[in-house]
Every structure is written in structure tokens, then in C-alpha cells.
Amino acid sequence: MPRKKKERATQESLIGKRVYLRPFGRNDLSYVQKWSNDPEIREMTGEAAPMSRAEAGRFYRRLRTDKDRIWYAIVLKKGNRVVGEAGLLRMFKPWRCTDMTIIIGEKDAWGKGYGTEAGRLILDYAFTQLGFHRVSIGVAALNERALGYWEGLGFKKEGVQRDGYHCNGEYSDFVMMCILEDEYKKLHTREHSGTT
Ligand SMILES: CC(C)(COP(=O)(O)OP(=O)(O)OC[C@H]1O[C@@H](n2cnc3c(N)ncnc32)[C@H](O)[C@@H]1OP(=O)(O)O)[C@@H](O)C(=O)NCCC(=O)NCCS
To answer: How far apart are CA 182 and CA 160, in angstroms?
Structure first.
């Protein structure tokens, strides 16, 4: 009898106003490879080395098989343009904790609110659908845009790893940040009450 293949739970798209997140597909690999090979983005995200084609293949296989991560392509509704990737990783259900990641890889899409919208979609999914209590991130202190971004989403600094990051021969602090489910829900409710 053929062995039944273990399937991951079906991953749904998350739909926002201007962007939507759809499950990451093999065709999106070329974008990730392009962004991972961009020195400016590598410096901000801590990718130590450029991503080869073989590594891109391994990355994709992990996304398909690892149960502790979910990954999305960030797509602009207008023109269905892929501008980034985002996901949850190191999801640990027993502790209701997870890490999060996001890269808007297309630089002309920076600073237009797409990252914030995509981040909220993921957080909403993590807290209200997946039942997580805590979402964490580590940010290189040199990445000022990202620090402002995470704070804007409601993340709080928890601690600093002094010189915890090393890139291009320079050290930078590594800032640990997190948001808890109650904080997110409060912020979310406040933002939506009185403004709509
Ligand atoms: C960080 C990132 C996800 C933010 O997404 P974005 O769509 O560019 O940001 P938004 O337009 O949603 O802006 C959100 C906040 O980020 C900060 N921000 C955005 N552009 C900024 C800039 N040029 N300088 C400083 N802060 C900036 C601000 O705090 C901004 O809030 P505000 O608009 O109320 O001032 C995106 O720029 C990115 O992917 N950068 C490269 C990869 C990266 O750094 N990933 C995160 C690793 S931890």
C-alpha cells in the first residue's frame, strides 16, 4: 500500500485593503533570491551570504515541510505585483510563542504603508486564528526604518544584545522586540474605534 503523504494544513490567503498575502509558491523563489542577493537588504536582514539557486531550493523545501513556519508572498492588489515576503517561524504552540519576519524587497514600495498593512494581517492571523500569545522579532539596531516599523506595529523593546550583530566588518546591537496578544488586541480595537 502506498504511504500516505503527510500534508500541511491548507494555508489561506490574508486579504487587506491594498495588499494581500498569499501562500508562498515556487514561482516566488526568484524574488527571494533577488532580494537575498541585494547587499542593502542583506545588511538589514542579517542574511550572511548571497543565496544560490540550490539554497533557494532548500529554502523552499523547508517551507513545504517544516511545521513550525508559514510563509507568504506580499502582493499589491493593484497589478498583482509581488513586493515582499513575510511569515511566522519558530512557531512553538505549547508556549503560544512565535517569531515573525517581513521583507518588502522591492525598494520603490518602501515607506508606502504596505509593510504595516502586511504586518497587521500576519499579527491578526497569529493572534486571532492561530492562538499565539507572543510574537517576537530581533532587529539590527542599524536598521532604523525597521525599528520604527516594529514600534509602529506595537512591538516593545525587551532587551539589547550588545554587538549582537555583525555585518560588513561592523558590529551593531541586536534589539529584541515583542508584542503580546492583549497589547495587539487593545491597539487594534482602539485604532478601529472612532476612526471608522
Ligand atoms: C522595514 C519594512 C518592513 C517597513 O515596511 P514599509 O512598507 O517600508 O514601512 P511603512 O510604510 O509601513 O512604514 C511603517 C513605519 O516604518 C518606519 N519607516 C518607514 N520608512 C522609513 C524611513 N525611510 N526612515 C525611518 N523610518 C521609516 C516609520 O516608523 C513608519 O511609520 P510612519 O509612516 O507612521 O512614520 C520595509 O521597509 C523592509 O522590508 N525593509 C527591508 C527589509 C527589512 O528591514 N526587514 C525587517 C527586518 S527586521
So the answer is: 23
Measured in Å, residue 29 CA sits from the centre of ligand 1 at: 23
Q: Is 9 contained in some domain? A: no
Of 162, 103, 165, 100, nearest to 130 by C-alpha is: 100
146 CB near ligand 1 (under 6 Å):
yes
Task: Classify residue 79: in a domain, yes or no.
Answer: yes
Domain assignment of residue 8, yes or no: no
Query: In the 8-state DSSP scheme, what is residue 1?
Result: -
Which tens digit of pLDDT belongs to each residue from 21-79? Answer: 999 999 999 999 999 999 999 999 988 778 898 999 999 999 999 999 999 999 999 99
- Ligand 1, residue 119: give the atom nearest the CA: 3
Contacts of 111 (CB under 8 A, 6+ apart): 145
pLDDT in tens, 151-164: 999 999 999 999 99
With a 6 Å cutoff on the Cβ, whether 139 touches ligand 1 is yes
For residue 119, count CB atoms less than 10 angstroms from its CB and return exposed for 0-12, middle for 13-18, buried for 19 or more: buried
Amino acid letter, 155: F
* Eight-class DSSP state of 2: P
Determine which residue's CA is closest to atom 30 belonging to ligand 1: 149
SS3 85: strand
